[in-house]
Amino acid sequence: MNVDQHLKVAQWHIEQARLHATQEGYSCGCPANSHDQKAIDAVESGIIEEETACATS
Q1: Which one in 1, 10, 17, 21 has a CA-CA gap of 20 to 30 Å to 50?
Q2: Residues 26 and 20 sit within 8 Å (Cβ to Cβ)
C-alpha cells in the first residue's frame, strides 16, 4: 500500500473505534486477522507507542 492508502485505512479504523466507544452495542463485525494482530502486538509490546496525550509541548 502507498501512503494515501494507509491513511485511508487508518481513517476508517479511527472511525470504527469512535463508533465502538460512543455507540452502545456497536459492532463493525470485523474480526482481527493476522495482519491486524501484528499491529496490535506491536503497539502492546512498545515497538510502536500509543499516544494518549498531546505531545507537542
Answers
A1: 1
A2: yes
Q: What is the pLDDT of residues 5-57, one digit of tens each?
A: 989 999 999 999 999 999 999 988 888 899 889 988 988 998 877 667 766 65
Q: 3 exposed, middle or buried (CB, 10 Å; 0-12, 13-18, 19+)?
A: exposed
- Decide: helix, strand or coil at residue 19: helix
What whole-number distance in Å separates Cα of residue 33 and Cα of residue 15? 19
Q: Which amino acid is at 52?
A: T
Q: Are 13 and 6 in contact (CB under 8 A)?
A: no
- Pick the closest to residue 29 from 37, 21, 20, 41 (CA basis): 20
